[in-house]
């Protein structure tokens, strides 16, 4: 399969950058996958550095489980989440997600049986956040499409400039094995490429895909 296919692109990026080891978890949340769910919400419209500050606040205040989120007063939760920005909306969304998780028999039951549709029904959870939770916390093969993905695959000439989230997601999932570990690694590699080379003002000389890119040198 050629490098211009999604699988070929994945293999080229993996060869250049190596395994990325996503999702980073380190704050002793219970269970550890709950930290991924929380981080997926907090990372909306902010940098990961700000997310880490909010996660540290939660850890330092012993607010590290689903039950902790449910039992914490909204005003206190907002205070803890403040470094992540949009803390009022994020506190509401986090409460809603905790309530959804609590409807299952256990967190393992949530991981096995939660659906994308159930997550998307929660106010504040859009497709990218839902797919991040499904992929990184639940181990389900649901490809995460972010701004880097749109930019890179448009510049490669594989998706249109106006292609929406679901169209890009369907394209990638239709052209890759249905493998959560591959999706996990591929998305992390896309983010690495987007940060190091395929920026808004691209650094094409640093890009392992330069030779097959239709938009090299152009924003």
Description:
The chain is mainly α and 219 residues long. It has two domains: 6-20 and 143-212, Orthogonal Bundle (Endonuclease Iii, domain 2), CATH 1.10.1670.10; 32-137, Endonuclease III, domain 1, CATH 1.10.340. Helix content is 57%, strand content 0%. The protein contains twelve helices and no strands. The protein has helices spanning 6-17, 32-42, 48-60, 66-71, 74-81, 87-102, 107-113, 116-120, 127-137, 147-155, 165-174, 180-196. Helix 2 (32-42) packs across helix 3 (48-60) and helix 5 packs across helix 6 (87-102). The longest helix is centred in the C-terminal third of the chain and has 17 residues, at 180-196. The two termini are 28 Å apart. The relative contact order is 0.14. The model has no long low-confidence stretch (mean pLDDT 95).
Please describe the structure with a list of short key phrases separated by commas or semicolons.
Endonuclease III, domain 1; 12 helices; 57% helix; 2 domains; 219 residues; single chain; mainly alpha; Endonuclease Iii, domain 2
């Amino acid at each position: 399969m050629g490098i211009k296919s999604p699988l070929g692109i994945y293999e080229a990026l993996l060869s250049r950058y190596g395994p990325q080891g996503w999702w980073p978890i380190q704050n002793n949340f219970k269970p550890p996958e709950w930290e991924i769910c929380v981080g997926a919400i907090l990372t909306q419209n902010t940098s990961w550095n700000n997310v880490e500050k909010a996660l540290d606040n939660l850890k330092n205040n012993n607010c590290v489980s689903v039950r902790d989120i449910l039992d914490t007063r909204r005003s206190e939760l907002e205070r803890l989440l403040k470094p992540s920005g949009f803390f009022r909306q994020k506190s509401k969304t986090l409460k809603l997600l905790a309530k959804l998780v609590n409807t299952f028999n256990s967190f393992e039951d949530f991981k096995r049986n939660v659906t994308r549709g159930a997550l998307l029904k929660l106010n504040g959870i859009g497709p990218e956040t839902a797919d991040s939770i499904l992929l990184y916390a639940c181990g389900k093969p649901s490809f995460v499409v972010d701004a880097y993905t749109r930019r890179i695959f448009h510049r490669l000439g594989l998706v249109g400039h106006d292609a929406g989230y679901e169209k890009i997601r369907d394209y990638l999932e239709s052209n890759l094995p249905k493998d959560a570990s591959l999706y996990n690694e591929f998305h992390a590699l896309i983010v690495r490429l987007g940060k190091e080379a395929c920026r808004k003002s691209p650094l094409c000389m640093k890009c392992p895909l330069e030779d097959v890119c239709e938009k090299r040198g152009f924003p």
